[in-house]
Amino acid sequence: MGMQEYVTDAVSLRKFSQGDLDGRYVLFTKRFGKIVGKAKSSRKITSKLAPHLEPGTIAKVRFIESPGTQIIDALKEGTATASLLDLHFLSMLLPEGQPEPDLWDMLQEGSFAWTDALAALGWDPEGARCVSCGVRPGVHFYLPRQEFFCDVCIGKLPSKVRQSAVLSLHVPV
């Protein structure tokens, strides 16, 4: 079976080092949802691809599927208005290969807000209750377990966890 080549718009969410010169990138694409791909030699000082894949960049991306995903080319078209921390959290939350048109529109239009993003992804914070006590409104979203907590119960989690994987939402109570 031959290689498949694709071109799509993408927002770069995260990057990782892979080996001495290669990079691994987490992209949220318009057509394919979240993809994780390797870019050969993107960590070379002379790389022409790396600046187009920096987190927060909106780019036209060309990639191939051939055992894994390999990013071949990218051309920067803009910058996302969501913060780098928000993009990092999105990379943790999104499943691979599932397009999310509403979320894509939020990122493109500069109207990204976590309450709207979670609602678009199926976790509506508006009526959420704390998973721990079940009584109070859930105004904090714990990413690794994808659960809502109230102000009191979130305080019971270790502070290191709260700093690295909890979204505090502004939800009408």
Label this structure with key terms.
single chain; 173 residues; alpha+beta; OB fold (Dihydrolipoamide Acetyltransferase, E2P); 2 domains; five-stranded antiparallel β-sheet; three-stranded antiparallel β-sheet; 8 strands; elongated
The CATH class of the largest domain turns out to be Mainly Beta
Oligomeric state of the chains present here: single chain
Question: What is the topology, as strand order, of the major beta sheet?
Answer: 3-2-1-4-5
The largest sheet is: 5 strands, antiparallel
Number of domains: 2
Query: Structural class from helices and strands?
Result: alpha+beta
The CATH superfamily of the largest domain is identified as: Nucleic acid-binding proteins
Beta-strand content: 35-45%
- State the end-to-end CA separation: 54 Å
Order of helices and strands: EEEEEHHHEEHHE
Rg, rounded, reads 18 Å
CATH fold naming of the largest domain: OB fold (Dihydrolipoamide Acetyltransferase, E2P)
**Architecture (CATH level 2) name of the largest domain:** Beta Barrel
Low-pLDDT residue spans: none
Alpha plus pi helix count: 5
DSSP strand tally:
8
Shape: elongated
Which percent range fits the helix content? Answer: 10-25%
